[in-house]
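#struct-queue
[09:14] JT: dropping the first one here, sequence first, then the structure tokens:
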Amino acid sequence: MNANTEEPAKSEQQPGAGPAPRVLTDDELSRLLGDQQFGVLSFVRRSGHPHLSTVLYDWHPVERVLRISATADRLKVRRLRNAPRAALHVQGPDVFSFAVAEGDAEVSQETTVPGDATGSELLAMTPGFEDKEEKAAFLEQVVADRRVVIRIRVSRLYGTALDVPAAQS
């Protein structure tokens, strides 16, 4: 604050007066993807407009693959089968950081038999089934839902963080 007025000092008002964003390292980006569960999937519609969809995802850092469960009739599935380029935006632990994972998407076959390859992959993405009956019910439900797995093979990671000093009291 300016000592003579209640207005903020000029340096506080000017764009770019604060700290510059810090580019996150590949390890930091991978950790951010691993720490979150929800992201915004982006791909291009046939009209050329972007399509954004909030999704639950599973990140495999060693493989550099994102996995997303979807139903076979969704726009994202149809579009990614025809134009496989996709990006996933993930918010960091605060509003000042983010990660984006870009790559080519592939869509699995629809699960048709409980416990088939797609169903097993979906089960692996959904931890916590200790009971055999719960597993069986899950595998039957993903067949009934006509689930597929969208896999994005990540070729580029980028993002930044803004290291804002803690407010002083």
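[09:21] JT: and here's the second one, same format:
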Amino acid sequence: MNIRTAHRDELLALQELEVAAGVLFRNIGMTDVAEHPPPALEIFEQSWEAGQLWVSVDDADKPTGFVFVKLVDGGVHIEQVSVHPDQQGHGIGRQLIEYVALWAAEQGFSVLTLSTFRSVPWNAPYYARLGFTELPAAELTPGLIEILAAETAFGLDPAERVFMRRTVARQ
């Protein structure tokens, strides 16, 4: 598997990949989450323009997953990581996150953060296995508080959300 910077002409396909990945939420009864639209094309474009959108690709150079980040309060916040359901279970998500961790270290950042569902098996428990720890509410930075407010406005239950952090070794 290879990871590279996304190409601009792949952005629509990444939106479609995100929609396909939503089927997993439908399978556990979270239809409201499954039916949420993918991030707007403008979000993908902003991440691409900032050089903060990467894809995993198959042997034909077709995206199988993606991750995009944004800089929040001196750290790297993983906004979204998605893997096509046909490709899940092969370590692609883990490899995308490790790629981001290396990028963050090269850029001089020392922390990764993300927000996710507390009780979904491929969310918080998965990230804990990758070295992320829960960030207590009292330690949320202003930028993370803004993200929580945006998620709540989007319709996500804040009681089901958890922020997690992982230290990155600076290079």
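[09:30] RK: nice, looked through the second one.
[09:31] RK: The helical segments are 11-21, 23-27, 31-34, 41-49, 92-106, 124-129, 142-153.
[09:31] JT: good to know. The chain has seven helices and seven strands.
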